[in-house]
Amino acid sequence: MAKTRRLITENLSQVDAVIELLDARIPRSSKNPEIDKLIGTKPRLTLLTKSSLADPASTAKWIDALHGSALAVDTVTGDGIKSIAPTLKKILADKVRRYAEKGMEGRALRAMIVGIPNVGKSSLVNRLGGGKKARVEDRPGVTLTKQWVTTSVGIELLDMPGVLWPKFDDRETGERLAYTGAIRDAILDTEELASALCRDLYREHRDLFCTRYKLDADALADASPYDLLCAVARKRGFLISGGELDTSRAADILLDEFREAKIGRITLELPQETGGGRSLS
């Protein structure tokens, strides 16, 4: 975090605006609380990424809550990508006008891209850059240093490494970041994580969860999070020698299917929520 904090501070004066990426499924949990302190009053455009994986109605509520300075985008489907440049130019209308008055009409705007690991920064750079400008993998921590990228839409992008903050405000934030892949699976107990996800899906998205795994919702009313994971393993026929349930395999499958929206387009946070999380400015 210290290195990225320094990079942001040192390069902020070189850009006209900041493009902050948040995961549309967890906009509150995916917001690094350090960003507001670092960028201060610099103009900002918020992008809710991976919108094709999130519930559209919930995403619309987030867009409204962010007062017109946010867009829903998806770097896989391309949804919303074409709106980024005109929206940024609208936010920076005064600066664009001043450039024109100085005879610099058409001068490229410069924007710094910030966000947590695996939120889609490199994929966005490649979309706007018209090619493979940045390395992309479906795991956190791929971009390790800053890089400038020229685009064909009148914006020069400064891509920053994704970084998590040292300490989460609450366990729920950490769990939600892990559900979406912002934290490396290799350092987690995936069965414990998948059990927590089962709990949250059963509580908040019961129909989608039970339909996907053909579960009897009423029969599981008193089930523990681990019991829910066992129910998934049982329904999928995941067994190891001796007939014991293979909950490790069930955990991996459950996390993969959530991340790929095979359970459904699910948003875990709404803007009107006040407890168990951080508010957005």
Protein architecture, described:
A six-stranded mixed sheet has the order 3-2-1-4-6-5, with helices on both faces. 39% of the residues lie in helices and 11% in strands. With 281 residues, the chain is of the alpha/beta class. It contains eleven helices and six strands. A hairpin with a 4-residue loop joins strand 5 and strand 6 (155-159). It has two domains: 2-159, 3-Layer(aba) Sandwich (Rossmann fold); 189-259, no CATH class. It has helices at 2-11, 34-39, 56-65, 84-91, 93-101, 121-129, 171-179, 190-204, 206-213, 225-236, 247-259, and strands spanning 17-23, 44-49, 70-72, 109-114, 147-150, 155-159. Residues 135-142 and 274-278 have low confidence and may be disordered.
Question: Could you name the CATH homologous superfamily of the largest domain?
Answer: P-loop containing nucleotide triphosphate hydrolases
Low-confidence regions: 135-142, 274-278
Helix content: 25-40%
Structural class designation:
alpha/beta
Radius of gyration: 21 Å
Under CATH at level 1, the class of the largest domain stands as: Alpha Beta
Whole-number count of domains: 2
Describe, in short, the structure shown.
The protein contains eleven helices and six strands. With 281 residues, the protein is of the alpha/beta class. It has a six-stranded mixed beta sheet with strand order 3-2-1-4-6-5, sandwiched between helices.
